[in-house]
Amino acid sequence: MPENFPRQPEWNDALDRLWAQHLPTIEARVAILELTAAALGHREIKSEERAAANSAAHKLAGVLGTFGLTKGTVLAREAEILYSGDPGADPADTATLARIAAELKAIVAGRQ
Questions:
Q1: What is the DSSP letter of 43?
Q2: How many whole angstroms separate alpha carbon 34 and alpha carbon 63?
Q3: Model's pTM, two decimal places?
Q4: I want to staple 60 with a disulfide (CB 3.0 to 4.6 A). Which of 6, 11, 31, 76 is the partner?
Q5: Which of these, 45, 46, 49, lies nearest to 57 by C-alpha position?
Q6: pLDDT value at position 111?
Q7: In which element (H, E) is residue 35 found?
Q8: How far apart are CA 5 and CA 19, in angstroms?
C-alpha cells in the first residue's frame, strides 16, 4: 500500500466528518418525504410536492449508499419510483410511503 494512502481509521473519521457536515440536508430530505406522505393521507398532493419528494428520494438514494446505508438506498429508490408514478393517491402507496419515510428517519438517526 502506498505510504500516503489513508488507513482505515482515517477513512472512518473522514466519513464521520462528512456525515456530520451533510446531516442537516439529509434530515431535511427525510422530512420532505415524511410531510409528503402525511399529506397524501389527507389530500391529493400538488405536482410541486410530488416533484420535491421525488427529488429528495433520489438524492437520499445516492447519499445514503455513500455512507454504507444500503437499506436506506433501497428504500429511497422505492419512494422515488412511487413518487414518479401516477399522481392519484393509492391508499397502499400512501401507507408504503409513510413506512418508508419512518424507516429512513430511523436509519439516519441510527447512523449518528
A1: S
A2: 18
A3: 0.86
A4: 76
A5: 49
A6: 84
A7: helix 8-40
A8: 21
- The residues, ordered by sequence, that sit 6+ positions from 109 with a Cβ below 8 Å of its Cβ are none
CB atoms within 10 A of CB 53: 27
Between CA 59 and CA 42 the distance in angstroms is 26
Spans of all domains in the chain: 47-112
- Higher-confidence position of 112 and 35: 35
Q: Which helix (H) or strand (E) element contains residue 103?
A: helix 91-111
pLDDT the model gives residue 5: 54
CB 37 within 8 A of CB 98: yes
How far apart, in whole angstroms, are the C-alpha atoms of residue 39 and residue 56? 16
- How far CA 27 is from CA of 11, 37, 54, in Å, comes to 23, 15, 15
Element (H, E) at 72: helix 70-84
